[in-house]
Design goal:
Distance between the termini: 49 Å
Structural class: alpha+beta
Largest sheet: 5 strands, mixed
Strand content: 25-35%
Strand order of the largest sheet: 1-2-3-4-5
Oligomer: single chain
Radius of gyration: 19 Å
Number of helices: 5
Number of strands: 14
Length: 229
């Protein structure tokens, strides 16, 4: 196992990967963006598995690793309260854009926001998790525990859906959804679409702004000037 204290030292970590030749690498999408931008072709050629988690993995990031390094960036999903893995893609079962199949021993339920009933296939709802790796509660905080645990089901605070083949799709944090004209809109999905069309190295963040007529509207902030034409 190779460890390095500062995950933000992108170029140094890329150099370490080239020199030490690890076979597995796990990180967040924001870290992987840094490694992609600061690395050279061949730095990650020894990797057998490269897994991104803790946030939605953009299509542009996956494409970047495949084009520059020939490495398939897999996506997983989890939470500290679930110790931490809930689902993950693998080389054998990989559906880009999804967070993979639920790991053995874990149950996932997608709950309708309004009715509280199970969602249909591909219907977006709250992601609830149950299993032996789910925490029993927050230390010395029964009130917060009661907010997220009910009958053994942990409310992740995330939105998502299951497809017909059992892959779990993460649609974003509940707090990163907004209603525009009565329809739920995922700010994460808007960001994902925008990143496909922005120039290389330009990142974006989408936020909601209150609106008297439609409830809210969305605004995108970008890290560099974008040609309006």
């Amino acid at each position: 196992m190779v460890t390095y204290a500062n995950p933000l030292d992108f170029q140094k970590i890329s150099n370490i990967a080239r020199e030490e030749k690890p076979t597995i690498m796990v990180g967040t999408p924001s870290f992987f963006w840094g490694y992609l931008n600061k690395s050279e072709p061949g730095d990650f050629k020894s990797l057998r598995l490269m897994v991104a988690g803790a946030d939605k993995c953009p299509d542009a990031l996956r494409d970047g690793y495949m084009k520059k390094h020939g490495v398939t960036l897999l996506e997983g999903y989890g939470a500290t309260e679930t110790s931490p893995v809930i689902s993950v893609n693998s080389q054998e079962f990989n559906r880009p854009g999804s967070t993979g199949k639920v790991i053995p021993g874990i149950q996932v339920r997608i709950e309708n926001l309004d009715s509280g009933e199970d969602c249909k296939v591909r219907e977006v709802g709250k992601i609830l998790v149950k299993g032996p790796s789910v925490m029993r509660g927050y230390y010395d905080d029964p009130a917060q525990t009661a907010e997220v645990l009910k009958d053994g089901w942990y409310n992740t605070g995330d939105m998502g859906y299951m497809d017909e083949d059992g892959y779990l799709w993460h649609a974003g944090r509940f707090k990163r959804f907004t209603k525009v004209g009565g329809e739920m809109v995922s700010l994460v999905k808007v960001e994902n679409v925008m990143e496909k069309y922005l120039h290389h190295g330009v990142s974006c963040c989408v936020v909601e702004v209150p609106d008297d007529k439609k409830g809210s509207y969305i605004v995108a902030a970008v890290s560099a000037e974008v040609n309006k034409t």
